[in-house]
Write a structure and sequence with these properties.
This protein folds into 4 domains: 400 residues, Peroxisomal Thiolase, Chain A, domain 1; 111 residues, no CATH class; 383 residues, no CATH class; 173 residues, 2-Layer Sandwich (Transcription Regulator spoIIAA). Helices cover 49% and strands 10% of the residues. It contains 44 helices and 25 strands. It starts with a helix and ends with a helix. Pfam families: STAS (PF01740), Sulfate_transp (PF00916), Thiolase_C (PF02803), Thiolase_N (PF00108). GO terms for molecular function: acetyl-CoA C-acyltransferase activity. It is a multi-pass membrane protein. InterPro entries: SLC26A/SulP_dom, STAS_dom, STAS_dom_sf, Thiolase, Thiolase-like, Thiolase-like_sf_Thiolase, Thiolase_C, Thiolase_CS.
Amino acid sequence: MVLIILIVAMAANRINSIIQHLAPASALSTVQAKHDDDVVITLAIRTPLTKVFKGGFKDTKLESIILALLDEVKKRMGIDPLLVEDIVMGNVSDANAMYKLRAAALAAGFPNTHACYSIDRLCASGLAAATDLARAIACNSVQVGIACGAESLTHSVDHFAKEIDQAAKDIDQAVLARSVEAADSAQPMGWTSENISRELGVDRPDMDEFAAESFRRAEAAQRDGLFDDEIVPVNTRVEGSDGEWEDVTLTRDEGIRPGTTIEGLAKIRPAFPQWGTNTTAGNSSQPMDGAAALLMMKRSTARELGQPILAKYVGSTVAGVAPRIMGIGPTVAIPKLLSQHGLSLAEMDVIEINEAFASMAVYCRDRLGLDWKKMNPRGGAIALGHPLGTTGVRLIVTGLSIAYRVVCLHLIPSRESKNPNGLESILSCTVLAPPCVIVTCRHFAALGQTLENGRGRVGLVHDDDDDDEADDSSSMNGSQHGESPGRRSQTPSSLTDSSGTAAATESMPLVRPAAALPGHLAPRSRHGTFSPRPPSPRDTVASVESGASGADDWKRWLRGRMRTRKMDHSHRLAQQAGFRFTPLMYLAYYVPFFNWIGQYKLQYLQGDFVSALTMASFYLPMALSLASNLSHVPPIHGLYSFVFNPFIYALLGSCPQMVVGPEAAGSLLVGSVVRNSVDSGQGGEDDALLHAQICGVVAGMAGATVLIAGIARLGFLDSVLSRPFLRGFISAVGFVIAVDQLVPELGLNGLADDMGVSHGSSVDKIRFIFGNAHKAHMPTLAISAISFLVIMVCRELKRRLEPRFPSVVFIPDRFLIVAASAILCARLRWDEQGVDILGEVKSATGGLFAFRWPFQLAHMRHIRDAMSTSFLIALLGFFESSVAAKSLGGSDTIQGMELSANREMIALGVANLVGASFMSLPAFGGYGRSKVNKSTGGKSPMSSIFLSLISLLSILFLLPEFYYLPKPVLSSMISVVAWSLIEEAPHDISFFVRIRGWKELLLMAIIFLSTIFYSLALGIALGIGISLLLVIKHSTRPRIQILGRIPGTNRFENAESDQQRGLEFIEGCLIVKIPEPLTFANTGELKARLRRLELYGTGDAHPALPRIRSHESNSNIIFDIHGVTSIDGSGTQVLEEIVRSYRQRGVRVFFSRGPARRSHPTWHLLERSGIVALCGGESHFVMDVEEALRWTEYEESIGRRSVNSNSARD
């Protein structure tokens, strides 16, 4: 009797299950439904991912990695290993993977009754393993199984790469010749990435932005301990560089590079220059070693075995794409998979897509319209790494971990595959912990009460389903962490209405246990499947109603009025990430001092001080030289620029190791303004106060220019000056400085003044030197020559010895020369022999540090005279600072200081304004000086502060020691600077000659010769004028292309650049590609260029030719506007006139690859301007050129039928 009752009960349960399957219900509820036959995941873990060749697994073979993984699976699964019937492993690189899997499983203690095999579907191997096992379980072939992926590229990548290369060569050429797509199947992955970037419009900045965000998310997740949920520690051995073996425990992924920025990624060279320039090692996935595993079974089996259920396997599918763009597989497979189950992307909460290359990931994100917040929330393969066969399983493990911690219902792990296809799966996360369940924000309006956990609004409701005890996270945690299963607690009273019923009925199980609520913090669990502890107090759930009291309403109102839209957006992002965005963060961003001072350590002090002392020994004498010999101001004003400017920059600058100070080019330009004022009769040669005031005005105007540009966010201005312009001008400045210094080095100053050549051009001075060289003062010449030779010899010795003996950089050769020459001059009284000496070093005002605001009405004439020169000093200074900052990058010791061109402008502008108030020389960042700072131990901006303090002490106590310093020594030091400005010119000249860059060489020659033969002002004017003309010419020329089809394919390419490939031209169609945004600047010649294409089929034909293309050849115009990412009003007007003209002539107009979203601003302009209506409606805006061609054939056939019917009626 009991047996009959049992059978009837089981049959009723089964019938009820079938009825639920057949009953009409929404697709979402079908996915969420729980049935005995569901395939579920009960355990999901992975090892750390380590770097190939140098990571923690570099000395661990594949079978040992698998053994470590299966040991952890066996220890955590909590069931008899005899129940495991099958183990499926994804692996790509090892041909013997199946044998190694079998050996590792037996070694781990799984009995020989299990079966195992490996599967190779390239990058989709891990997902294929999980899919194969799920299908086997669903058809009752297997009851319990393990799906895993493992890869040891360190020990097989060389052999694997050779096999791949050989396989491509071994394919029968007769097969490849049958079609272009067959030949494309042999393309390497890097090539396909560049194809996507080039053909589908994914540019380098977008790829670098995506990669930087991947690193940022992974860094944040690792910092907050989120990966501890999924990673299991692995004990292994590593051989050190000394041959000694060390036992290590691996717990962290090694591919994450903290502090990765877009600017840093932009500097990385292309990885595949033979195919393109956008794919780099920085925006591609990293090869890694590692493994991951899933324990899978049916829901009914899980209940019987008391297993926690992490997720329900819903389904998977595959879809193919063209081999040359195989990475976009997810854009086809994901919609296909969702449609099979009646779901939409909006109902997915987490989407894990493999980031093999940023080009693929960016295109998939944009093409599918994915919410970037849902896509790879903890970063992807670019940051974490890509162990080929492991990645598919790793995506599931990470996705389930996110589903456990964050508000989540469903996730899609997605992989592109070289097959080529996309392989996708849907998992429904139905695990979690009573007494509460969580629904996503799209459902929260139906809840009686909401709470906020810093990541999004969530609702808490009671789960009355007592039958699914295997779904309890308490059971899960007990099974996997050695604890006894817990009993459900009652629903908190605050979450029920007055009748005691639940606040809501729509529910999914909780991703966070009740112990994570305030006052019930769970103990910190180190590792395991989705460890339940909050990573920090800020991640715990807090009530929405627990805000400030009403008495603080006025504070909230004031903050709301002060906050901008961007600030509000930043606050929302911070809340979603789980932390609070405070005003101190803004302050630390805009005043970096508050960022780095908190990170400063006592151990940095010695390096910063030594580097500052070394720089002072080099550059303080140089500052005296620049002020005295080039700027013609009292020498102390050169020292002032090392007192104020480095100090201010240390507070506001965003490059920790850059040091600002006066430069030769800027000092020479200041000197030119001083000379012009003397020539115009505003003062005499000895009017030190006037010269100092002019210096302050020039520095102040340069600082104000840079400051205003920074506030206006004009950080891109450093791109205005081309490399040839800078090389020509800087070389000319070096030549002018060298010629200028020859006069005092020969002791001919007085004679030059008498003959009126002191303020002449370089040619005049050269003529003077050749005519009067026999009158040179021999002691002065000897001191100059010896000083110059000693400095040059020391400079060359340092350059050659530094790689082997880094400490030589600390030798203060210039300071020793200055000190030795001053001592010898004082002892031997060279001044009595006619050698000019520096004399008393004092301020032009008579006192130290006299404050004089540069922008006074009394200085208005100086301001007018110095306007253009100050602008150029600002431009040159910022350009050199930008180059230095980008070359130095961030510091290893100071984190969170992101290089910003706009903030650099503000820092340099404020520094120069402060320095100008004390009449100092203009000061900007210099690469050579900053490199010395870094190589001598400088770790932080504190080295700049020390440099300022040392300069201050030198002014206060050491100025009398400079009295006997010979001026020829200062001149020789300036000559060395001039040499350094000129010595790079031959390299650039030879480069441009090699690439036949005659335009660049001509620009260099014009600037160089005009500066030498006439003046600096003329060289500046010509250089800037020519550079601006070139920029305007480039930006105003439309770069439209006529497209032809590659025979046998649906691909279209530029016919003018690929004529040798025999492209096909479609009869009656003109296909025109517009590869750039349309603005007022580049649409001026658009009509003329289109007209030339209509007449001749090419833009290279001379307009004097008679018409070549017939009118019938232009019956249909197809515009490929994928590159038109934006369009302004003027461009829209011109395009409307073009379309109207075509339609009036009876020409059909189509637009392909336009904005996919009707909310796009470009679409709004096309619609409002009437272009859409003129073309014939939205049907004339199609997805690709091939579809447009089909529409032309259709409309032509309709037209022919209409003509035929009219003829029949007649």
